[in-house]
Amino acid sequence: MGTVEVKALDAGSWFGSNISGYRVPTLQEFITCILDNNLNLQLELKELPGREHAIADSVCRALKDMWSFQHRGLFLSGFSERCLKRVAQNLADVPRAIALLCVPEDPDAYAREAGVQIIHVQDKFVDTEALDAIRHSEVEFGVATINDPERAKQLLAQGVTSVLTDDPLLLENEANHIGQQA
Length: 182
Hints:
Layout: H1 3-7, H2 27-36, E1 41-45, H3 52-66, E2 74-78, H4 81-90, E3 96-99, H5 107-114, E4 118-122, H6 128-135, E5 140-144, H7 149-157, E6 162-163, H8 170-181
Parallel strand pairs: 1-2, 2-3, 3-4, 4-5, 5-6
């Protein structure tokens, strides 16, 4: 499917009829929106087996053309080591995160082998043993998907670097809620 076909797709209707008609932006349109709003970006590459290099090369070209690397936070993530290794060849200074189900036995060795600085794991696999490995690792860890402020605070207090959530105001809302109760 090419850019013209993708742009014709309705990106909003499956969320609800009130937002139907929104079109899928191109990567360049998306990057422009991020830059125009002075935001940082975690860009997740969705792999297509056998096309990982083409996808990574295309994304890296767009970023090289548009992104101000000195002034904005950026990291690339994905489930594919092959995509992320190709990103490392094109944008060596841009941090990379790999999404896994669980914490590897030796997170530091795994990160070196995969060429990443960050590991994202699923919360349902983060137990006491996993938290111990996280605390003793030099790798940054993110845990997904956390929508409970108490769980987020617990993970952060136990050595997790970040939580991935559907609610960008998760901890801010919790602080406001606590302040309103006092």
